[in-house]
Amino acid sequence: MELILQGMTKSFGDKKVLQGAGFHFQKGKIYGLLGRNGAGKTTLFNCLSGETKIDGGHAWLNDDGGKRKLVEEDIGYVYSLPILPEFLTGYEFIKFYLDINRDKRPGSNIDAYFDKMSMSQEDRHRLIKNYSHGMKNKIQMLLFLISKPPVILLDEPLTSFDVIVAHEMKNMLREMKSDHILIFSTHILQLAADLCDEIVVLNNGQLSAVPADLLHSAEFEQSIISLLKDENHAENI
Ligand SMILES: Nc1ncnc2c1ncn2[C@@H]1O[C@H](COP(=O)(O)OP(=O)(O)OP(=O)(O)O)[C@@H](O)[C@H]1O
C-alpha cells in the first residue's frame, strides 16, 4: 500500500503554504514529518483528512484494489488537541465506537482495548471532560485500533505523554506500522530519530526525504537544522 501525493497546493489569502508538495509514503514505515513552526504540517494533514480543501494537486491510495483517490474514511487523524464527546466516559465512547464498527471488530472486548492503553479501571469510567490531554490522545489512538484506517496521521502526538506512556505508544506504533501508513509530525528530533524509519521535511511548501543513512548518524541534528534554516521562512509564519 502506498500514499501518493502529487503537486499539492494550498494558500491562505496570499500566503502560499503548500507549493506543489509531492511524496510517496509506503505501508510498513513510520514517517516523521519535520518542519519549522508555520511550515504547513497541520495544513498538509488537514488537506489529507478532508478538513481543509486543497487548491490543487492530488492524493492517491495505491492498495490491493489499485490506485484510487484518497477519501476521508482512509484517514485516522490523531489531533494534538483531540475533539471528543466530553459528556461520555471513555468506556461509553469506546463501546459506542465498537458498536458502529461491529462489522470490522465482531465480539471485541472493550476492556482489552483499554488494557492495551494501560488505562486504569477508574479512568476508563470517568467522563472524558476530566481527562488529561494525554488520556484524550490515548482514546483517539484506540479509535484507530478499532477502525484501522489505512493512513494514520499524528499531529505532535507523543509530546503530551509521560515517559512510560510514550514508551508504550512508541511500541504500539511500531506494531501498527505493518498494516498502516503512519505519518507523524514532531519538533522533537530525538523522537523522530528513535521512532521513524524515514524523515520527511516540509520546507518552502515542498516535501523532501532526508537520506536514510543520516537518520542514525551524529550529523542528523545538524543536517536537519541546515535544511530548515533559510531566509524565506520568516515571512511564512
Ligand atoms: N485557516 C487558516 N487561515 C489562515 N491561515 C492559516 C490557516 N491555517 C493555517 N494558516 C497559516 O498557514 C501556515 C501554516 O500553518 P500550519 O499550522 O499548517 O503550520 P505547522 O507546520 O503545523 O506549524 P506548527 O509547527 O507551529 O504547528 C501558517 O502561516 C498559518 O498561520
From TrEMBL:
SUPFAM superfamilies: P-loop containing nucleoside triphosphate hydrolases (SSF52540). The keyword Nucleotide-binding applies. Keywords: ATP-binding, Nucleotide-binding, Transport. Gene3D superfamilies: P-loop containing nucleotide triphosphate hydrolases. This is ABC-2 type transport system ATP-binding protein. Residues 3-229 form the ABC transporter domain. It comes from Paenibacillus catalpae. The keyword RNA-binding does not apply. GO terms for molecular function: ATP binding; ATP hydrolysis activity. PROSITE patterns: ABC_TRANSPORTER_1 (PS00211), ABC_TRANSPORTER_2 (PS50893).
